[in-house]
Give the backbone structure.
Amino acid sequence: MTKKTAAKRDPATLPQHVAVVMDGNGRWAQRRFLPRSSGHKFGVDALKKMVRHCAEIGVAHLTVFAFSSENWSRPAEEVQTLMDLFVKALEKESPELARQGVRLHVVGDLSAFSAEMRALIDQAEALTRRNDALVLNVALNYGGRWDMVQAAQAVLAAQERPTAETLAQHLALAHSPDPDLLIRTGGEHRVSNFLLWQLAYTELYFTDVLWPDFGAEAFETALADYASRQRRFGGVPESKSPAAA
């Protein structure tokens, strides 16, 4: 981001919570005659850059879809590559997140992961717990339907009256506001079981750019598109007075 871009930005139009479906790693690699695993590795680099960019410009919450509950159906070799990448990223990147002031939350059904990986998640979250520059939510083995079911079960277990408010308090992202902007890279135009409850009034932005190529310029284009929209949350746009027209 250039100083000129920063100077022009209206803080009121900056989304406080950005959610991202990081799609296109495999296709990015295949177009370069590389194994799909290479695409995932470059995808980690793209995420690191986006985390820094969000912290720099004042985005308060960033939620990324790293591994869905449906991704287990991918080839076993690719799934293992992703698990290895997650472990390495937790080991290597957690200290850097702490230095950047980023607080990490890993959300999803973590029971399917190895004891080693769950321990690394606990350590990374503990290491970054006091940080407040940016909340980074990483969705692992996550699905929107799973999220609503587990929240409903928690409401019943607590013997609370089921309402929109009590259900929201038990969702995986109860610690973050609902996303203002959802970005999906890779050319697909769907939410793929991601944050189904939380996306009720989120602005959606789809781009053909594959995730490893989604850098600061592409992100700024998405932010500019978001800034041009008028969010009404079911209401009607404010009408200008005749004198102001």
